[in-house]
Amino acid sequence: MIRKICLTLTLLSACTYAGADVGDTGYIGLGIGSVDYGIDSSSDFDNPMGFELIVGKEVSRNISFELSYIDFGKSDNGATPVQNLEASAITAGALLRGKLGKTTDVFVKLGLQGWDSEISEDGAGVVANKDGTDIFYGFGATVKTTDNLSFGARYIVYDFDGDNVTMLSVNAQLNF
Q1: Is the pLDDT of residue 5 over 60?
Q2: What gap in Å lies between CA 51 and CA 86, rounded to an integer?
Q3: Taking Cα atoms as reference points, which of 151, 130, 127 lies closest to residue 141?
């Protein structure tokens, strides 16, 4: 059900995009932050640093669309033999924005992601891998420091077949 809702929102957003003309309002960005793979508290897997590459287009003052590549980083359990958990995703999402003051925007973000994850073990190679398509959602804020540069923070929850992977990141964005 939730996948159908997300797909419907994505299609409606694409229709909005096709009819909008807001000039040069594209942006690219880079985010880096802490990833929590959502593994239970009895696990010894650590929380790695991940990064996100973002390409976006503002279609109105309150709506933007983004495509992202996310590398969630490599987490290991510190045991012998060491097991490593890695994941990545490609996302397409919509941001609904609101303005706070002259330079600050807050937003909520919703979209679809194609993800891939694997667990490998030193000496044994890949012992498990999984991929899928699921939703993601979150919120954040950006502060415009110049006409072309913004900084911000995001907290996004990614669904991996019912398991939540979260990322809290700081971002820099170049507007053009």
Answers
A1: no
A2: 13
A3: 151
